[in-house]
Predict the structure.
Amino acid sequence: MALLVHKYGGSSVATAERIRKVAERLAAAQGQGHQVVAVVSAMGDTTDELIKLARQVAPDPDEREMDVLLSTGETVSSTLLAMALRALGQPAISLSGAQAGIVTDGVHTKAKIKNITPKETHRLLDAGNVVIVAGFQGQTPGGHITTLGRGGSDLTAIALAAALKADLCQIYTDVDGVYTADPRIVPTARKLDEISYDEMLELAGSGAKVMQLRSVEIAKKFRVVFEVRSSLNTNAGTIVKEETRSMEDIVVRGVALDKNQAKVTLVGVPDRPGVAARVFKSLAEAAISVDMIVQNVSHGSSQPLTDLSFTVDKPDLPKARAVIEALQADVGFQEVSTDENIGKLSLVGVGMRTHSGVAAKMFETLAAEGINIGMISTSEIKISVLVEAAKGEQALRAVHGAFLG
Ligand code: ASP
Ligand code: MG
């Protein structure tokens, strides 16, 4: 007998029909003698619709109320799923995040889980129930409802799997697993049998949004092995786990294209100590996260100047521009330019640690396609380049072809 945690995303419970299908899958797992916990997201686009509704009544809705509102989405799906299971003759019970013992800090709309007391869940499992936990929510020690940030049901599932010491955590979604590239753009992309946490984090951070980033970080921290698989079929998915020796034989695990970045360039920045600190501190204070950063070698000898470029998430661009413009008089750069027509192409693989020539091959591939590289950044297991947005998909296909066939 194993303890299983299943997580079903919004598309997997989008309709009554799909909820019944999920109930059948859970009842079958329980029928095989396992203990089963299911974490669910809100049905379909419920969360987006609730956010829209809130903005129609208030330009800047109160975040504490927002959390109570958004948590109702998962209340709906979890209770319906429990009803569907009971209709199949399978004992089942739904629990809110709070009832499942999930305690968070008080940062509304993006709370962090502080601890989980799984006692009640164990008791209900031992009594023969499938336990359905509403994803994405918890409560503060003072009893206020919180939510865990968009996509937070993944985090609920991973954290519960860790707290319950589950034997297996399966993340059911509308894709078959993690692919070498987005199959909608790259027809030859393949589903991966396995991937390491670090590779998954780099790919997710590079725009391959299969799961909430933080949930993968938590899985890594608590060594929760999990599987990403489809709720629409019974195919094996992709196992996400600690890096193993054999993983290093594969140099490149996947490629991703992030179309959600914009580039900011400060032209003619005085090359003296403290300038970069000034710029990035101001951005950080405005809660703008910066991804790639490139500073040129300085030019001019009497008063050396340099150019400084960085990328931010596209929605943060207006804010970033305002922050930078406010610094102009003080820092004394000549001008600021921005570019939204970019794509960030990233090549990811733990095998890069032990193999050389990966960057050269990537750049050659892009050159052969006549694609210019804007900025380059690297980590131990990733190489990212900026390319013109219009050529992003062509670049993705070419680089995928060169490394992954
Ligand atoms: N319903 C929430 C959202 O859409 C949480 C989740 O889906 O995981 O962000
Ligand atoms: Mg959702």
